[in-house]
Write a structure and sequence with these properties.
Blueprint (H helix, E strand, L loop, with lengths): L1 H17 L23 H4 L12 E2 L5 E2 L7 E3 L8 E5 L4 E5 L6 E4 L2 E12 L10 E2 L2 E2 L2 E9 L4 E11 L7 H4 L11 E3 L6 H4 L7 E7 L7 E8 L3 E4 H8 L31 E2 L2
Parallel strand pairs: 1-8, 2-16, 11-14, 11-15
Antiparallel strand pairs: 3-6, 4-5, 4-12, 5-7, 6-7, 7-10, 8-9, 10-11, 13-14, 13-16
């Protein structure tokens, strides 16, 4: 009996340690579910990921520095619908790149940052997967609008997305093509125009700002982060479409290789100040 008990314990421990790892992800430079190149291994594989100003972070609203003189974000070109854009599954996220040559971006303190792409981070059926947390609460999803200035400075606008009882029409042009990009390296053109203004929440000019990093390797620091104070919403059916996306090619698919929880763990603040705009 003791032998069988020990064997049962061993098998349980073995299954537990193996659960959640995607073997095919180990072939990538980095991943979210590989046993050798997942987020816990990033600081070892990519030294910059061990920096003192890393992202994402928890935003403790009682500790932020409120500055009434801080200017709000000004979005330009977001009111012009994206009529031509590529959507790609790169194995780490679903990314949308506008291809219509319209100048879109955000202005902060007199500097213009131009939109390069937007992508998403999400969780699983039972657990939310936004990257930044608010008072230690994690929302279902986070959208990142990545911008760059003419002098190569990076600014990312983060939008926290929470569950709603009904679908959000702003996500429809994205969700309708997700079945075409379920697997790594799959891409296609959006079929419908995408309204970026509608993807932003109400009062998008107000934000929590801090200096951080890219949330994926190489984890470059010096990124101006603007996590919007208002939230966006997504319907359960729409979120479910994201939960069907894989981090691997079709022939390598398995339940452990779903692109779920493509969110980096919370990083230490290390004395940084988080500012809150009016």
């Amino acid at each position: 009996m003791a032998v069988f008990m020990l064997l049962a314990i061993f098998l349980a421990a073995t299954n537990l340690s193996a659960a959640g790892y995607c073997d095919a992800d180990n072939e990538e430079t980095y991943s979210y579910h590989g046993s050798r190149n997942g987020p816990r291994q990033w600081p070892r594989l990519f030294p910059a990921c061990n920096g003192n100003k890393q992202s994402p972070i928890d935003i403790e609203t009682s500790s932020v520095k409120r500055d009434k003189h801080l200017k709000k974000l000004i979005f330009f070109g977001y009111d012009k619908s994206v009529k031509r854009a590529d959507i790609v599954n790169d194995g780490h996220t679903v990314m949308i790149t506008p291809r219509d040559n319209v100048r879109r971006g955000v202005t902060f303190q007199g500097r213009d940052y131009y939109l390069l792409q937007l992508h998403f981070h999400w969780g699983s059926e039972k657990n939310p997967g936004a990257e930044h947390t608010l008072n230690r609460r994690r929302f279902e999803m986070e959208a990142h609008f990545v911008h760059r200035s003419s002098d190569s400075r990076t600014a990312v606008v983060g939008v926290l997305v929470q569950m709603a009882n009904k679908n959000n029409q702003a996500f429809k042009p994205i969700v309708e093509v997700l079945p075409d990009v379920l697997y790594k390296d799959k891409s296609r053109r959006l079929r419908s125009s995408l309204n970026l203004n509608q993807l932003l929440p109400e009062s998008p000019g107000s934000y929590y700002g801090y200096t951080g990093s890219l949330t994926t390797p190489m984890c470059a620091e010096g990124v101006a982060w603007f996590v919007l104070q208002s939230k966006q919403t997504i319907g359960q059916n729409q979120l479910n479409s994201f939960l069907k996306v894989y981090s691997v090619e079709k022939e390598d698919r398995s339940s452990d290789c779903l692109l779920a929880h493509n969110n980096r763990p919370i990083q230490n603040l290390n004395g940084r100040v988080i500012y809150a705009s009016p």
